[in-house]
Structures are given as structure tokens and as C-alpha cells.
Design goal:
Blueprint lengths: L4 E7 L2 H17 L4 E7 L2 H4 L16 H8 L5 E5 L11 E6 L7 E5 L13 E4 L2 H10 L4 E4 L4 H9 L5 E5 H6 L8 E2 L14 E6 L3 H7 L5 H16 L8 E8 L2 E9 L6 E9 L3 H14 L2 H8 L2
Parallel strand pairs: 1-2, 1-3, 6-7, 6-8
Antiparallel strand pairs: 3-10, 4-10, 5-8, 5-9, 11-12, 12-13
């Protein structure tokens, strides 16, 4: 039967809605007669804006309600930021497409001309990410990292209200919401290794919905999908969650995946790094190679210390 309508489940934050409409426009460019309905959901992760995600269930709180909508046939597809998707797949669902990847870098936003290296000691830097706090604390131990939750607009407002001296965000969110002029500077992927999947959108649907899978495959980009898989393998091997500062970023050059990964403590006192290289046709092997390197450097002991 020809596919005539799709219901997209999305969070209701401005960025999530941008992503849902972006996917809608891609789909209707392929199939102009397709009727697409956007269904907004407020997830538990959106409601709990003043607590550390690691203490209430992790980033999976941003996707559970959307996946439930797929499983109970309230929606047909869900659009996710891949950095928010738990490592273990949900039974009955499949990530049918990874869209072309956008900017995966982290950025500094402040209302002064200071770079982090020039900011006064004890300046308050806002971030929701232990990964960012870890890497930046290692480089700038004199600065104070403070929890910052909420959507992009909320975080910018908190900065403008003087609650923080600077904040660290993902470049892609500011770019998509046309706040690129707020970016003070970009961190290279070596200075702040991104979260696994950062900058990539995934489109999920039911595993038995073959017509939708066939359509979504036309949105799928192989190269970013291979990179994201290699990155996510590192996180899965190390039990990646909001409570573990893990970074992993991959690129493809000359048909090989080049993967850079890190694991550290939230205060930045201990960080280990790994690099791995391998055939792009076997991204899991590249991810496992990087994870093995981290384990050989003492990742198990570091992870155990985080659970104390």
C-alpha cells in the first residue's frame, strides 16, 4: 500500500521542532503528496530542568516518550539528536536513517570579548555536560563549572541575566536556531572532543513498518552513519551515560575511519585519550579498537571511581 501520511513525534523545544520540520521538508521533497503531521511531546528530560540528568535517568529521558508513541502507534517516526539516544536499541524499533551530519563542535558563548584562557579566575561557566566540564576543567582549572539545563533559548537567557559568565553549547543548535551570531568562539574537536553522535540527526520508526523504512532510507547518509556507529561503540563499551564523561568523534578520510575518544573524571583531574584507525566498512571494529585502548590505559578503574 502506498504511503500517504506520516506522523512525526518530537520534543517541543524550539531546536527539536526545527529538526522535525527539517525532516518533514526532506520527506516531502522526495514525496510531495505525503501528508506529514508534527506531534509535540514534553519529555521527562524537558520537565526536569533544574537537576543533573545523571541523577534522574540520563539522556534517555529525552527519547522515551517519543519511542512509546511509536510503539503504541500514536506516531510513525521520531526525530532524535543522536547524542541523546541511549546506546541500547529499543525492541521493536529501528534507527532507519542518519541524516547528513552538521557541525559537531562545541562553542563558547559569552557577552564579553574574553576567551576562556583570559577569563578571570572563578568565572562561572555553564554546561549541562560532564564531558565538556571534564575537558575544559583540565585546561582551565581556575574556572568554575556550574550545571546549566534547559533548551537553547533558556540557556542564553540565563547567560544574559548574569547567572553565568560564559556558557558552552553545541554549535549545531545555535546554527539551526539562527543564533550563530551569539557564538564567541569554536572549540576544535581536539580541544573538546564531542559527544558520540553530536551533530547528527536520527530518524526512528517501527521495525515492522517496511514502507516507512523504505522511505526513510532515502534520507540515510552512509558516511555519517559509519562515523556515528564507531563513536557509539566506544560509549556502549564504556557504559556511556550522562554520569560518565565520554567523548568520541570520527571522520572518514581515504576510506578509513579516524576516531578520537576520551574518558575522564568530571573535575578533569584524570583524562585518558585514544585514537583508532580502520576500514570504514567495519566501524564497530574501529570503535572497539579505541575502547580497547582506553581499557588498557585504566578505563575500568576510572569508571569504578565514578561510581563511588
Amino acid at each position: 500500500m502506498s504511503l500517504t501520511k506520516l506522523r512525526i513525534a518530537t520534543r517541543e523545544s524550539p531546536l527539536a521542532l526545527w529538526q522535525a520540520y527539517f525532516v518533514r521538508d526532506l520527506l516531502t521533497s522526495i514525496k510531495p503528496d505525503l501528508e506529514v503531521e508534527i506531534l509535540g511531546f514534553t519529555t521527562k528530560g524537558d520537565r526536569l530542568i533544574d537537576v543533573n540528568l545523571a541523577k534522574v535517568g540520563g539522556k534517555g529521558l529525552f527519547v522515551k516518550e517519543l519511542e512509546n508513541a511509536l510503539l503504541n502507534n500514536t506516531a510513525d517516526i521520531a526525530v532524535h539528536s543522536m547524542k541523546d539516544v541511549p546506546m541500547d536499541a529499543t525492541a521493536g524499533l529501528t534507527m532507519a536513517a542518519i541524516c547528513e551530519r552538521a557541525d559537531s563542535r562545541d562553542v563558547l558563548v559569552n557577552n564579553t570579548e574574553y576567551e576562556l584562557s583570559a577569563m578571570p579566575a572563578a568565572s562561572v561557566i555553564g554546561t549541562s555536560s560532564l564531558r565538556r566540564a571534564c575537558q575544559l576543567s583540565a585546561r582551565f582549572p581556575e574556572l568554575e563549572m556550574k550545571l546549566l539545563r534547559g533548551n537553547v533559548n533558556t540557556r542564553l537567557k540565563k547567560l544574559d541575566n548574569g547567572e553565568y559568565d560564559a556558557i558552552i553549547l553545541a554549535a549545531v543548535g545555535l546554527q539551526r536556531l539562527e543564533f550563530e551570531d551569539r557564538i564567541s568562539s569554536y572549540f576544535s574537536v581536539e580541544e573538546s572532543i564531542p559527544a558520540p553522535g553530536q551533530g547528527a540527526l536520527g530518524v526512528e520508526c517501527r521495525l515492522d513498518d517496511l514502507a516507512t523504512i523504505e522511505l526513510l532510507q532515502q534520507l540515510h547518509h552512509l558516511a555519517p552513519a559509519q562515523c556515528v556507529l564507531a563513536e557509539r561503540v566506544v560509549s556502549r563499551r564504556l557504559g556511556g551515560s550522562c554520569s560518565v564523561p565520554i567523548g568520541a568523534h570520527a571522520i572518514i578520510a581515504d576510506d578509513e575511519i579516524h576516531l578520537h575518544a576520551m574518558l575522564g573524571t568530571p573535575d578533569g583531574h584524570s583524562i585518558i585519550y585514544a585514537r583508532a584507525l580502520g576500514d570504514r566498512q567495519d566501524p564497530e571494529a574501529v570503535g572497539n579498537r579505541a575502547a580497547d585502548d582506553l581499557m588498557a590505559q585504566g578505563a575500568s578503574e576510572l569508571l569504578a571511581s565514578l561510581k563511588l
